Amino acid sequence: MKFNFLIAPDFPPAHFAGWHMLNTLLQRRSGLQLHLLMPANAQEQTALLQQGSVDMVYANPFDASDLIRQMHYRAVARPIGKADEMVIAAGLGPAVQIVENLKPGCRIALTDNRDVKLIGLRLLESADLAESDIEWCLRDSYQAVARAAIKGEVDAAFFLSDAYHALTRLTRSQLHVVIESALDDITHVLLAHPEIVPELPKIVAALTEIGESASDKEVLEALGLPLGFEAMIDEDAEFMIDLMDTLLD
Amino acid sequence: MSLIDMERPALPCTEHKQSYADGTSRIVYCTESEVQFPDGRLIVSRVDLKGIITHANEAFVMMSGYQRNELMGAPHNILRHPDMPKAAFADLWSTVSAGKKWHGYVKNLRKDGAFYWVYATVVPNVRGGVIAGYTSVRRKPSRRKIEASSVAYADLLSAERQAQ
User: Is this complex scored with an ipTM above 0.85?
Assistant: First the structure.
């Protein structure tokens, strides 16, 4: 039997090969057949999930809330020491040095990553800015978001921290970090559909045992998750969902 | 569970006798020193149904001025500042115990008598259809909201004192 394994589309492009390497490794060690699904954007991900044929999902925390509470997916594992953080950056001019320099009517570039937008909005509260105070400038990629900030088309730009730090040195040299979140408790999570629960021990064992060998390290480095994965219990996921709930408004 | 009296800080301070809903009381000291909310962070804690702290993240421990072992197992009102009206906490508990989310601006008291303002959101932890505890997440508030809350709470506090 083949299981469909969906990866949320918010990882930096440099990690694309890493997910294929992980999938190969998981299949070899678990003895299960896994078919990797890599949607290009959030809309494609939603469409795949709604078809009801996704057995495992590496989901961002925002989507994980719905998948667990509405669609009854079970939390299986999470990356170790890899919280989901975001960066608000601006071009090199003097106009935006701190969050409080952003005023109603400001323009902010971002991608369609809902987690990043949600956390970014919370960080803007100290400047008394709400979603409706901002002119949102949607871009297809973090590279395009960076270009918009560098060219001065926007006052600030939202990035997933990983994506910001994966930008080229030249690009980052033309930006500066206004604020970077350090929320710590919010991570991507690997979820499994309730129908594959009998196979979970094999998957968890295969995933959490990826570790110290040179070939394992190569896979984890390619994923940008050098410390690997740890098993989760349902309460870990419930705690994170409660936390996300507090950030919704 | 009763809290022991605070130690008098070295800085100039005011002394207050604080009484709590469970009938206990203690002496607290307040200085005029404000500690700023750390940029980019969330302060996270969880309490059980009786308001006893069961989880605190590093930002919570750092901002409180207490050691982690002093916080775990202590009632959450260890951080209550005497400038906060009782009505605010009564509203919080009646809201979350009814299974709803509560938001509000809160002035917290540190172990050293200093204070820090937060925008707090508290949600009930519903497990198997039953409330098992509460999660509180605090974010950085704007100065404008802090100033407005200070005025509103001073009025409420004044009304509460007159009613006593």
Answer: yes
